[in-house]
Fold these 2 entries.
Entry 1:
Amino acid sequence: MKTKLAVLIGVMLWAAGVSAEIPERAIPFTLDSHIYIRGALMDTIPVSLIYDTGADRLYMDKDYMDLSDFGKLPFRKGQARMGGAGNDGVQTIPVILDTIPLKMGDVVYSEHITPIINLREILGRHTDGMIGNNAVFDRPLVVNYTDGYLLSLDSLAPSMLEGYTKLPAEFNDNRVDIECELRIDSLQTVKGTFRLDLGCGSTVILTNATLKGLDLTGKPQAQCYFSNMGVGGDGTTVDFRAESFRFLDEFYDVVVSASYNTEGSLSDRPHAGIIGNDVLCHYDLIIDAPNNALYARRNNNADNSYQRSSLIQMGYIDRTDITDGWIVSSLYYGGIAQKAGFEIGDMILSINGRPVKEISWEEQRNGLGLKGPIVYEVRKKSGSIVTYTLVIEKEIL
C-alpha cells in the first residue's frame, strides 16, 4: 500500500476559510486519502471525523478524549468487543454509554453506544473520531468528490440521476458490495464482489483468501508491514501492479495491495477485496441504501495516484498533538527507508533541517515534493537522536 498521497478535488480549506460551490444542506469534506468532515458534538463542541462506509456508528479517538473538552464530560463508560482490519482479531475496548448528539451539515444524528478507539495512532492528529453508515444511510446519500461534499437527499428524483450509471451492487449488513473485475495479467482475473470502502485511503486491497488463489511468481512485488493497519491491530500487505481494474469503467496499470492477515476484515471474507478512495475519487456517487441501489458518474479528476507506489518506502503519522514529530508506522521490507536504518516507532523531528511541527496539514496534503538526498532527523525509541539520508529517486514498484 502506498504512503499518503494527497488527492485534492474541490476541497474546503478549513483554516483558510475557502470552500467550493456546494449545496446549502451539504456536508463539506476534505479528501486526504480519507474523507474528513467537520461536525459538532453536544451542539457546540467542534469535531473532525472521517466518514467510513466500512463502519456503522460514531467512534471517538482515545487521545481526543484525553485532550478535549468533550472528553472531560462525565460520561458513563462500559466495555465491548470489537474487530477490524488488523491482524489482532477481536479486542475489548471502552465505550461511552450515554447518548451523544452529533450535527454534520444538515444531518442530525444521535449515538447511544460510542466506542473509544486508537484512531490517531492510525491516521494522525487531525482525526478526532469516525462516523459510519447509521448516520446517513436512512436516505439517499450523494458523495461528490468533484466539489468535496456529502449530501443527504429527502428523495431521489430521476433528474438527479442524469449522467449516472446504476452499478450491480448488493447491500449486506449496512455495507455495499459491487461486482468488479481485476485483471492481474493475461492469465489471471479476479471476478466477484468488492466492498465499497470510503474509509480506505488506497486503491484496491485484496483479502488474504483472494491472495491465496493468485500466482505472483516472477511479478515485481513489495511487502509492507503496518504497525496499525486499521482498527484491530497490525498487518502486512504485498503490493504489485495489475493490468486493469474495472469499476464503472477501466483503470490500467493499477498498484494493488493484498493482505497477509489471517484475522480481521481482510482475512477470509465473501468479498474479494475492498475499493478505496484512490479509485473512488474519480467518480461522483449516489448511495441509495433505502432502495439498495448505487449510482456512479465519472468526473474530471485526472489524478493518477492509483498508478503510483511509494517513493520514500515508509509511512508515518503526524502525532504533533502529543509529541514533537511524525511517527514511522509502516516500512517496506528492503526499501530505502529500512536500509537507511528507519524502524517502526521512530519519530521524525525534522526534514532537511525544518521541524515537522512547522509543516501544516495543507502542505502535507499537497505533498512535500521530496526528491534526491533528503536528510531526516530522527529520535529513536531509546531517546537517541540520529540522522538518516534517503536518496529519493524512484518508486518501489
Entry 2:
Amino acid sequence: MDNKTKIGRILEDGGLHHWGVASFADTLPVLPCRAASRLPRDAKSVIVCLLGYYAGERAHNISRYAWARDYHLLAEELLSPVAERMRETWQEQTFAVFTDNSPIREVTAARLAGLGFIGNNGLLISPAYGSYHFIAEIVTDLWLEPSEPVEAGCGECRLCLDTCPTGALSPFGVEKSRCRSHITQKKGDLTAWEQDQVRKGGLAWGCDICSDVCPYNHPPCWTDLPDFRRELNGFIREEDLPRLIKERAFGYRGVKVMQRNLRILKRKASGAGPDTGE
C-alpha cells in the first residue's frame, strides 16, 4: 500500500471523506503569520480537507458558518487525532495541522488538491459541499503524489456578482471595504453607510448572499460531520454573548463588536437612525 493510500485510510477512519494533496512548493509563497513557525522545515506536501457546515435552515441573525461551535476548535478536534495517527505511522516525519489562521493559501491549496474551483466570489466551489465548507490542512515533510486540480469554473454565471448588494464582488476580485461580512467584523465605530449595510443585511455577523445564490448550493449539500450539526445557535441576543463569546467563530473579535452590531440591528427594529457617536 503506498503512502497516499495509507493517508486516505487514516483520514476516512477519522470521518474526513473529502480530501486531496497539493505539492507544498505549488502553494508558495506562504502567508506571513505566527503559525508559519510550525511549518515542517522541509515541507513537501499539503493534505487539504474540506469540512462541510450546512445544517439546514432556521431563523438566524448570524452567518451559517457561525451557528455551530467555533470551526477552529472543531477542525482541531477532527484533525489532531488524525495527524497523531500519521505521526505514529511515519515516526520520522512531521505533520502540522492548520485551519484559517494558516500560512497556507487555503483556497489555492484546495484547488490544487483537486477539491474544487475558485468561484467569482473568491470561495472554493466543491462538488462535495458547494461553498458551505471550511478548509483545513495538514502540512508534512512526507512526499505524497499530488492530486489533479479540477479544471472547471463559473462559466457564464454571474449570480453572485450581480446579487452582491454593495458591489463588493467583481471579475477582478473582492473589495473588502464594501463586503458586508468584512464590515460586521471591523472593530471600532462604523460609518453611517456601514451601519446601514449591517441593518439592510440583517445579520450581526457575516453575510451569506454570495453563497446562497450560487447554483452549486442548490440543493445545499448537508454536512456529514456530526459535530457541525450539534449545539447550533443561529439567533444571538446580547445576553447570550458572555456564554458564547469563547466558543463561537465571532468570538475572536471580542464582545464589543457583536454588541455594536446587535444594537445596530435593534435600532433598525425600533426605527431609530444610525449611531452618530454623539
